[in-house]
Design brief:
- The chain is an alpha+beta fold.
- It has 3 domains: about 1-90, Translation Initiation Factor Eif1 (2-Layer Sandwich); about 95-260, no CATH class; about 275-425, no CATH class.
- It is about 45% helix and about 15% strand.
- The strands form 3 sheets. Strands 6, 8, 9, 10, 11 and 12 form a 6-stranded antiparallel beta sheet that branches. A 5-stranded mixed beta sheet has the order 3-4-2-1-5.
- Strand 1 and strand 2 (about 15) form a beta hairpin.
- The radius of gyration is 25 Å and the shape is globular.
- The model has no long low-confidence stretch (mean pLDDT about 90).
Length: about 425
């Protein structure tokens, strides 16, 4: 959500202002207010729901920093003086995007600077005035706009947003610009927003999924009824919400139980869901996208090939190299024990090139000789064991990148070389 922050003056309190109603869970807001009070702020909620009033002795930069850290889900534009406030550029040129997530069970919210994920019922979507573009009740069949008529055909209802977990984020899109979109542009907008929200889902799949059960994955952002993609756009300046639903080509697994996401309180969510990224974080984000593609693949041969591509990428994201050289770079991130290092070296040889033409490894047989993994490993339990092994390695390697203090790939490569040197110095 968007808000403006203005510093207190001699005869006036400071304010954090937004357009009511406040839709996010109030317990996060209350917790943030208490943290500010502990840091020497006097804070109270403005009666009409427009925001917070506060008084403090801090500088402008300190106030801005404290509010941004305390309320990470609020995108704040800060002003030193009240007369400088421009609500149009700070709030009215933006909307809230709300996407339902099918096949996902989650008990606690994940809050970040960019995308937030809420359990079903926690984001107060019932307070949004949802209408057709010509101002009629959303469920009205008498709308005269083609865009709303197409949405009505899908039979989407407000209950879709009330009964499913929701991804929420702010997008620069004014009410006037939204009203001029065509039906085709609506579909592009849904895809664009779903792709943006996938940064949250990539992390959720990483922490809670694996490589051998694609049926235990959630649907793509916005997908419901295993056929349509739905999205709610809310414009706070107009207090107006509009739902789009289209038959968009986004894959959803229609069998199985979906995902029960139990791991949500991870530092990785905060590190990779900020507004700014360094080079290494961007590499981690792309690795997570490749990781998600592997999880969602229901062809085991292609799944294995994609895993090998991800190993290549983690070895060196900027150039193509021989796997026997690349594995020396990332194996030190998997173990600090010399004997285990040698064991992993031999294991990766079996999985990749093998002993050459006379005794090729698994990757060579699949990628270069056209074999399927089912031919080479016909017993399902053994293939499942292999994918668990590969998943454990990839999980550990991506985790090592996410939590590294390095900011560039060069710094990170130096860190890996130091680990390898340490192994062989013992």
């Amino acid at each position: 959500m968007k808000a403006v922050l203005v510093l207190p003056e001699a005869n006036r309190q400071g304010n954090l202002l937004w357009m009511p109603p406040y839709l996010y869970p109030t317990y996060d807001l209350d917790e943030g207010i208490n943290r500010l009070k502990e840091n020497g702020y006097f804070v109270e909620v403005i009666e009409d729901g427009f925001g917070l009033a506060f008084h403090c002795e801090h500088t402008f930069d300190e106030v801005k920093f404290n509010f941004e850290v305390t309320f990470p889900w609020i995108n704040i534009t800060a002003y030193q003086k009240e007369e400088e406030i421009d609500f149009q550029t700070a709030i009215f040129d933006y909307c809230l995007i709300v996407l339902p997530i099918s096949r996902l069970s989650i008990s606690s919210s994940i809050i970040s600077e960019t995308v937030c994920l809420f359990p079903a019922g926690e984001f107060q979507v019932e307070q949004i005035n949802i209408q057709t573009l010509d101002g009629k009740d959303f469920l009205s069949k008498n709308t005269k706009t083609l865009r709303d008529h197409v949405t009505n055909i899908t039979e989407v209802s407000p209950e879709v947003f009330a009964n499913l977990p929701l991804l929420v984020f702010t997008k620069k899109l004014s009410f006037e610009s939204y009203g001029k979109l065509t039906q085709q542009e609506d579909s592009h907008l849904i895809k664009e927003c779903a792709n943006y929200a996938d940064r949250m889902m990539d992390l959720l799949r990483y922490y809670n999924g694996d490589y051998h059960l694609p049926e235990a994955l959630p649907a793509k952002p916005g997908v419901w009824s295993d056929r349509y993609s739905a999205m709610l756009c809310y414009f706070p300046g107009q207090k107006f919400g509009n739902v789009q639903a289209r038959e968009v080509e986004l894959k959803a697994f229609s069998k199985g139980i979906g995902m029960d996401a139990t791991i949500t309180d991870q530092l990785g969510f905060r590190l990779l869901l900020g507004n700014e990224y360094n080079e290494l974080q961007n590499i981690a984000k792309h690795a997570l996208k490749l990781h998600s593609a592997i999880q969602e693949s229901d062809n085991e041969t292609m799944k294995f090939a994609h895993i090998m591509v991800l190993f290549d990428y983690i070895g060196d994201p900027f150039s193509f190299g021989r796997f026997q050289d690349l594995k020396e770079k990332f194996i030190p991130c998997l173990t600090t024990d010399k004997a285990k290092y040698e064991e992993l070296t031999e294991r990766f040889k079996e999985l990749t090139g093998g002993e050459g033409k006379h005794n090729p490894g698994l990757r060579t047989k699949i990628v270069h000789m056209g074999k399927s993994i089912e031919e080479l490993i016909p017993i399902h339990a053994e293939r499942e064991k292999l994918f668990k092994e590969l998943h454990n390695h990839i999980y550990a390697l991506i985790r090592h990148i996410i939590y590294s203090p390095a900011k560039t790939w060069t710094e990170y490569d130096i860190e890996r070389k130091a680990l390898r040197k340490l192994i062989f110095s013992v």
